[in-house]
Automatic annotation (TrEMBL):
InterPro entries: Niban-like, Niban_1/2/3_dom, PH-like_dom_sf, PH_domain. This is NIBL1 protein. The gene is Fam129b. It comes from the Eukaryota. Pfam families: Niban2 (PF26086), PH_Niban2 (PF26089). Residues 582-650 are annotated as: Disordered.
Length: 667
């Protein structure tokens, strides 16, 4: 009833937001196309990376798979599910493991972009109550759901559907939490980084749109692919209106109102998503059709466009720069070193932990090869090592270092809503550096294998290659971190400066529009040129702060003048070759096999995380048990287990009672 009431006004309101955004996008598209063509013609770039970069790291790999309980909202029951996390980091839930191996349709597919992973009902209720229209319910109210174990895992989203899971032990909870966090981290980073025009045009359009609504600074919901981000942008504006319209109509107990609001919000989000996808795809197609003509104009008139832009920039600079420099001197400059130190400490600790984990894994592998055997053991260990960067549990100690990031008083001063943007970016860079180190190591080792004789020779070669790779890692890590620090400082200070300067500068910018030739208006924007001038006012101080940190060798940063001589001139040529498949090349495994067999093997061999504990006590499931499965499940129910909270016996008893209530009604 609520959606029927709101359907037409919501579609109209969504259409207006998207229309305004699409205008911003078309403007930014022309600017970024010009920048891309100019960069292609003029060239440029930073220092060459020493490590190799793997193009398709996880093709045909499964990150993790295992059993856990899911709460089914439709019938308010907990059911056992087999969850698979494929190479694209989606969460795929099957009825059971057999359904997965038989390639049956999954029950649920979850793209976790924008979600938070919660491990307690109290955390969840706090977020639910905070988003509920009207007065916040009292903390003592009955929770929205009951968990059959002490180890819940809840996926919460401010607009979309929530997902509820639980497991049997704290160890499992930690493991699944690491896996889910990796999924969120990867899905949040949904805009392709190799896109030179569309991606920067999109992110700039989002920023410009939000700034037009007086919303400056980082945004937590810049998560997922373009359609998801744009849906979040629309929902950010719709939710206040939705609450004021729907809030008074929500009746009943707190739990009923909570459930109703979550369902309404999710339904609206899906409506918005569908409408957003249609309109965004249309504007993207339109820009792609116009691109050849625009690119032709840019290449023909490049010099005139550059001259026109420089003329505009000089006029804006004369007007803005004096005010901007005073603002930087009084409000930004005194705090740059403090912000940088707050960023450097946890980030550098995280990258150091990446180095330590890589060193430990290779050293352990080398010791095991020395003690246990030669090439056969090498193949077994290299298959595991090759996917180390995508092992959520082993990488967790690296990622956790970023949890220490706190800007404290600086966060309020510069109006930074959350540090999660910086934490997530650093963690993605850590994973990338780990994979680059591993890929370089395996490429060099693979090249050496044909020349080695005996186990001792192999172990010496592994140690020598490890030392070479670590030197390359130190150099690349320094380069990556310095770039990250500069970008983070800009992300913190530029929105603050724009907000400070807006009252005196923004209203005057329209007078500069007449300086742009009409033919070049698609490639030069006054607003963008103004932001470039503001950026120049603070860039020198930021560059100097990072440079001084490198000169002092803080956190093992290298100076900009330090150039690492390439000791492996042919290494990058090796990286262009066919990806190494250790199992296929040295393990003698047959290529052709049925899809179901491949799926079974994916869990046992290709899966990054191996389940050391064997079958979970509830792996057979709690619904539709066969007699054989029933006996196996009974065997797990020892007297000790039956007395523990959340034991298999208790869960089965709970499910039995639920089934009875469903049949005859509650007592």
């Amino acid at each position: 009833a609520a959606l029927t009431l709101l359907c037409s006004p919501l579609a109209e309101r969504t259409g207006k937001v998207l229309e305004e955004f699409c205008r911003c996008y078309r403007e930014q598209y022309g600017v970024e196309l010009f920048n891309s063509v100019r960069y292609e013609i003029e060239g440029g770039g930073g220092p060459q990376a020493q490590l190799l970069h793997r193009k398709v790291p996880l093709e045909d790999h499964v990150i993790y798979s295992g059993n856990l309980f899911q709460y089914i909202e439709e019938n308010k029951k907990w059911r056992n599910r087999f969850c698979v996390v494929p190479h694209n980091y989606g969460l795929v839930l099957y009825e059971n493991k057999l359904a997965y191996e038989r390639v049956l349709q999954p029950r649920v597919l979850v793209n976790s972009a924008g979600y938070k992973i919660l491990t307690s009902l109290d955390q969840y209720l706090e977020l639910v109550n905070g988003s509920l229209p009207g007065a916040t319910p009292k903390s003592g109210n009955t929770p929205i759901l009951k968990c059959p174990t002490q180890f819940p895992l809840i996926l919460w989203h401010p607009y979309a559907r929530h997902y509820y899971f639980c497991v049997m032990t704290g160890k499992e909870q930690d493991k699944w939490r690491a896996v889910f966090q990796d999924c969120v981290r990867h899905c949040n980073n949904g805009i392709p980084e190799d896109s030179k025009v569309e991606a920067p045009a999109f992110t700039d359009a989002v920023r410009m749109y939000r700034q037009s609504k007086e919303q400056y600074g980082t945004w937590d919901m810049l998560c997922g692919n373009e359609t998801q981000i744009l849906s979040n942008l629309v929902m950010e504006e719709l939710v206040p209106e939705l609450k004021s319209t729907i809030g008074p109509r929500l009746k009943g107990k707190t739990q009923e109102r909570q459930r109703a609001w979550i369902q309404i919000s999710d339904a609206v989000y899906r409506m918005v998503y569908d409408q957003t996808k249609t309109q965004y795809d249309a504007i993207l197609t339109k820009c792609e059709l116009e691109r050849p003509q625009m690119e032709s104009t840019i290449r023909t008139d490049m010099d005139q466009i550059i001259t026109s832009k420089e003329h505009l920039a000089s006029k804006i600079r004369a007007f803005v720069l004096p005010k901007a420099e005073i603002c930087v001197r009084n409000h930004v400059q005194p705090y740059i070193s403090s912000i940088l130190e707050a960023l450097m400490t946890p980030t550098s600790q995280g990258f150091a932990e990446v180095r330590d984990v890589f060193f430990k894994e290779v050293t352990d592998m080398n010791m095991n090869i020395l003690n246990e055997g030669g090439l056969e053991k090498l193949v077994e260990y290299m298959e595991k090592l090759s996917q180390l960067a995508f092992h959520p549990v082993k990488m967790q100690s690296c990622y956790e270092k970023m949890d220490q990031l706190k800007l404290e008083g600086l966060q309020q001063r510069f109006d930074v809503s959350s540090t999660s943007v910086f934490k997530q970016r650093a963690q993605i860079l850590m994973r990338q550096q780990m994979d680059d180190a591993v890929h370089t190591f395996e490429t060099l080792l693979h090249q050496e294998l044909g020349k080695l004789q005996g186990k001792d020779d192999l172990c010496k070669s592994i140690q020598r290659i490890l030392e070479r790779v670590l030197k390359k890692y130190d150099y690349d890590s320094s380069t990556v971190r310095k770039k990250f620090f500069r970008e983070a400082l800009l992300q913190i200070t530029i929105p603050f400066l724009l907000k400070k300067l807006a009252p005196t500068c923004k209203g005057e910018l329209t007078k500069f529009q007449e300086l742009i030739f009409e033919d070049f208006a698609s490639f030069i924007l006054v607003e963008n040129t103004y932001e470039e001038v503001v950026l120049q006012s603070v860039m020198k101080d930021i560059m100097q702060a990072v440079k001084e940190a490198a000169v002092q060798r803080k956190h093992n940063l290298y100076r900009d003048s330090m150039v690492m001589h390439n000791s492996d001139p042919n290494l990058h040529l090796l990286g262009e070759g066919v990806p190494i498949d250790w199992g296929e090349e040295y393990g003698g495994q047959p290529d052709a096999e049925p899809t179901s067999d491949k799926r079974r093997r994916a869990k046992q061999v290709v899966s990054v995380i191996q389940d050391d504990e064997g079958a979970l006590p509830y792996e057979a499931g709690t619904e539709a048990l066969t007699q054989h499965e029933e006996r196996e499940l009974q065997d797990t129910e020892s007297p000790a287990a039956s007395g523990s909270p959340g034991s298999v016996r208790e869960i089965r008893e709970m499910l039995r009672k639920e089934a009875l209530e469903e049949a005859v009604g509650p007592a």
